[in-house]
Amino acid sequence: QLEFLLSLFEEEGIPTIPLKGPLLAQRYYNPPFLRKPSLDLDLAVIDDDLERACRVLIKVGYTTDMSVSDSIAQSHHVELAHPSQPHVELHFRLSHRALGIPVNEFFDRAVSCRLPDGQEAQVLCPADQLLHLVLHLAQARFGTLFHLCEIRRVWNAVPVSVRVEAVKRAVEHHYCGVFRMIEIAFRFRFNEPFLPPDLEVPKTWLNWRLTPDLYRAFERWSVPGRALSLGERLRARWLDFQLTDRPADAFRLAAFF
Question: Under a CB-based contact definition with an 8 Å cutoff, are residues 93 and 86 in contact?
Fold first, then answer.
């Protein structure tokens, strides 16, 4: 299905980047089927191509419950469903709903990857791939050990220079709190560091809150797929709030919710 969709977008002249899924498995797992099977396909498209990409998918049987304009206001992707094929998420931001990083900049740094059928696809460069995996786990509020282990796998597969570049981009986009929490998760779960020892990551305005107790609170709260009461949703917002880098970031988060 990924091969079909990439061919479809190529015919329409729509640049696309698969974000995780089968190509992540092909790049970092040997053999690729050792990765947990994907339940959907995450594809990045630039803002200007988003509506056209949705129309292309609708023509081949996909449907969406939310308009593109509503998705842009409320989310970081458009979700499309198909009666017999995996769901597709078209990402126009990397993660974090309306406050996330627009995907446009990642196309400039994308690298080529060959699919099993010989087709060439563009994928995130290694530093951006790490950044995305970390932000994806934080967006899910550290709810799955699998994704933490996957970050560790990719982290160990790339050179130190790539790790440093990923951290620098996180600092640039105000995700220091997220990367500091991943450091705590690595030490708690694997008894090893995540951040390069000679790279200084700025402290956040709530840095004193970033502790193993907070990470355990994320893990206790995060049960994927369960319905949340109002009190639980408010607690989730409070957890997110503590990972913000600056008061301005916290105010943006509060205003969005």
Answer: no
One DSSP character per residue, 52-104 reads HHHHHHHHTT-B-SS-HHHHHHH-SEEEEB-SSS-EEEEESBSSSGGGS-BTH
Which residue has tokens 């919710």? 257
Cα–Cα dist 175/139, whole Å: 11
pTM: 0.95
Query: Which of 238, 221, 215, 26 shows the shortest CA–CA distance to 114?
Result: 26
DSSP for residue 116: T
Q: Could you read off the pLDDT of 36-71 as tens digits, one per residue? A: 888 899 999 999 999 999 999 999 999 998 999 999
Place of tokens 């282990």: 149
Please write the tens of the pLDDT for every residue from 185-235. 999 999 999 998 888 899 999 999 999 999 999 988 776 666 778 888 888
Question: By three-state DSSP, how is residue 162 classified?
Answer: helix
